[in-house]
Every structure is written in structure tokens, then in C-alpha cells.
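Protein: Peptidyl-prolyl cis-trans isomerase
Species: Pseudomonas fluorescens
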Amino acid sequence: MKVCVKRKLFVPAHLGYRERQMGAHIKPNSNLLIEIELMEVLTRIIDASRRHIGNQ
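Structure follows.
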């Protein structure tokens, strides 16, 4: 995905909140349509000598 690009994600109810209601706007068994936009990409250099299994 490129910076400043928008994508719409469809999440069917069985993969989302299922029978649970989330707040006042997401009813039980609702399909979700989520729009995201990549604003920027941040990177960092990880020093391999300081990296241990289990640390993130």
C-alpha cells in the first residue's frame, strides 16, 4: 500500500464482533466496513546485537 492511499476493508459479522454489540453504533451480527488511509511510513533501525528472542 502506498502513502496517501485509502482502502476499504470488509469484515463479515462472523469475523468481527459476532453477537456482541459494541457501543451505540455497532449492533450484534453487523458486517463492518472500515476505511483506512496510510498517512506515512515510519522506520527504525534495529541493532541485531541488542535483539533477543522474545523482545520486540
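Remarks: The chain has a mean pLDDT of 88.
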